[in-house]
UniProtKB/TrEMBL annotation:
PANTHER family: TRANSCRIPTIONAL REGULATOR-RELATED (PTHR33221:SF13), WINGED HELIX-TURN-HELIX TRANSCRIPTIONAL REGULATOR, RRF2 FAMILY (PTHR33221). It comes from the Bacteria. This is Rrf2 family transcriptional regulator. It holds the Pfam family Rrf2. The lineage of its organism: Bacteria, Pseudomonadati, Bacteroidota, Chitinophagia, Chitinophagales. It comes from Niabella yanshanensis. NCBIfam families: rrf2_super (TIGR00738).
């Protein structure tokens, strides 16, 4: 459903939120190790998310990535839009360019409901809300 880049972005953002709950800043190496992702790839992804103010960063020996109260309220939909664009929320289920209400593809009407449900779930899901479940080990980011 998401591109690999978007999957890494979401996982990295949740990992950073978990670590920065106590004011910690986390470096690229720790993030990459924590979510089992390539370092160089995570660095590029976080650079883009930082440009959009979805995550904060500080350079230097005590630097790293972190969330404050505002950035922790970013939704998963914000991340998806930044990395993958709006296609998930508005695109055709079959990938057709001309799919619309007046010219629907064979799955248009059912897929529209699925798409709306996914968008609603991603809009409600805030980065900062996943930390409790991770700490309680009810959810995980890697095996």
């Amino acid at each position: 459903m998401f591109s690999k880049t978007c999957e890494y972005a979401i996982r990295a953002m949740i990992f950073i939120a978990q670590k920065s709950r106590d004011g910690e800043r986390v470096g690229i190496k720790d993030i990459a190790r924590g979510i089992e992702a390539p370092e160089y790839f995570i660095a590029k992804i976080l650079q883009e998310l930082s440009r959009k103010n979805l995550v904060l960063s500080v350079k230097g020996p005590n630097g790293g990535f972190y969330h404050d109260a505002e950035s922790a309220q970013s939704s998963l939909a914000d991340i998806v839009r930044t990395i993958d664009g709006d296609k998930l929320f508005h695109g055709c289920g079959l990938g057709l360019k001309e799919c619309s209400e007046s010219h629907p593809c064979p799955i248009h009407h059912e897929f529209k409901k699925v798409r709306a449900g996914i968008q609603c779930m991603l809009e409600k899901a805030r980065i900062g809300t996943f930390t409790r479940e991770l700490e309680s080990q009810l959810t995980f980011l890697k095996r």
